[in-house]
Design brief:
Layout lengths: L2 H15 L12 E6 L2 E6 L13 H20 L2 E7 L6 E8 L4 H12 L14 H13 L3 E4 L2 H19 L2 H10 L46 E7 L4 H20 L3 E5 L1 H4 L1 H10 L5 E9 L16 H4 E3 L3
Parallel strand pairs: 1-9
Antiparallel strand pairs: 1-2, 2-4, 3-4, 5-6, 6-8, 7-8
Bound molecules: flavin mononucleotide (FMN).
Length: about 325
Amino acid sequence: MRHADEVKRALVQAADAARFAPSIHNTQPWRWVVRDGALELYGVAERQLHEQDPSGRMLLLSCGTALHHARVALDAEGWRHEVEYSADEPLAVIRPVRQVPARPEATRHFQMLQVRRTDRRTVTDERVPEDTLRHLAKVTKETGSRLHVLGRDQVIALAVAVDRAQHAESADGRLVAETAAWVGGERAEGTGIPASALPEEVPLTTVAERDFGTRGTLAAGGGHDRAATYAVLYGDGDGPEDWLRAGEALSALWLAATEQAVNLLPLSGPVEIAYTRRTLRRMLGDVGFPYLAMRLGTLDPAHSAPPRTPRLPAGQIIDIVPG
Ligand SMILES: Cc1cc2nc3c(=O)[nH]c(=O)nc-3n(C[C@H](O)[C@H](O)[C@H](O)COP(=O)(O)O)c2cc1C
């Protein structure tokens, strides 16, 4: 095969693998263009949550997870590549440089990409070990963001912030209508969160899971979150490019957590509302900007995970420019 054809094939495969990436309400707000031996990433305004996420923070975090997933797929094929970032469109351009034998950890990350999912069942009473938390913090740092693990007092403050953010969002009629359009039911169109991924009832935990305003069919388990670890993903800047890069770190962290059998549940509510975002910022000692709060914990392996959430078909999100 000609070199140019090999590169093109690898880029299409990478964009295809990125379909597995997590996104806010499973909006999958990205689009790819394969052009001139490079892969261009674009945000898609029609799949932005304009009421919940007017600044595009969550959209860009989601595009960042897709960007990282595409890079993991290239790494798994041994493709060394460069990435050019931009605060504008395209958000990023990936250029493969040369192919080398794939590293075993790259293959493992690619496998994790296929099994990772958001699991909203309650966690067990088994804590995530300290050295695992240290490993996750290291992975996050290597991808350009940082992870702040909350102490006991801060968990209470997080619970209050989550609650306030939930109240603010539930009182906003337009936002509630927007959520209802993306969440619940069977999601035959390939986007959104199906009922099968949502708890039958929002579990009674200290820090509440997001209340999507609709009941699902997932048996969440009667557990609590006493042994859960709460953390905040954060970094130095608070602009569009920072959010995109934070999404890459979220993806790296989530794949590493999956590999360690640690369940990661994002809690984005307190980041979406300005005053609870300030609370998170204070929790970080004002040394950085919060991108996402999350729960880390272990799940009972005896019970099966929720089924995979749907994805848009490749043809709808990947354009191949001939040449
Ligand atoms: C930036 C971001 C924010 C998210 N926020 C939440 C949240 O607040 N609550 C929640 O239950 N899930 C949250 N999720 C998980 C998404 O709903 C989930 O990734 C999506 O539905 C696709 O499902 P999957 O992760 O199982 O592939 C978030 C995901 C991302 C990427």
